[in-house]
Design brief:
Blueprint: H1 3-32, H2 36-62, H3 82-109, H4 113-143, H5 147-157
Helix pairs in contact: 1-2, 1-3, 2-5, 3-4, 4-5
Bound molecules: MU-OXO-diiron.
MU-OXO-diiron (FEO) binds near residues 19, 93 and 129.
Amino acid sequence: MNEKIRIALNEQINAELYSSYLYLSMASFFKRLNLEGFARWLEVQAMEELTHAMKFFNFINERGGKVDLTSIDGPPTSWDSPLSASEAVYKHEVKVTGLIYNLVNIATEEKDHATSNFLQWFITEQVEEETSAEAIVQKLKLIGGEGGGLYLLDQELAQRVFTPPPGTTILAGAAKGGA
Ligand code: FEO
């Protein structure tokens, strides 16, 4: 595996694990506000980020590359309001999209078509991630971020369930079964 690509993919493992850390921290923030639905949504989001990290982990290993796990930064622990926390989710996802695009650029420069192909899934995923985060921000703005509207939005977000993305498993061996 090309060393430049290997280093970049390893950095993305760290970025995805940081995303999981960030959303877990945010879930705890919402639990302190007794907004269990928001907390649930973020716990599911944190799980999804783990599957993203594992996708990179498995891809590096499958191609015979070395995985270097590095320290994960501590995320913030509180935000000014549900709106500011939700805006932070959206901003973070936009940042991650930029990281994915940068990886695609490196893979293209290095003519690594296998990595380019692997990254296509993340391009699609990031569109969804940004859209769902932005939808929460918009709804919060619509309801003024409080009162009965906030209660109903919290109920809505509580419905989210964790479903591993299709073709994605935490354990590499299990992926062979097509589950
Ligand atoms: Fe792994 Fe939310 O991007």
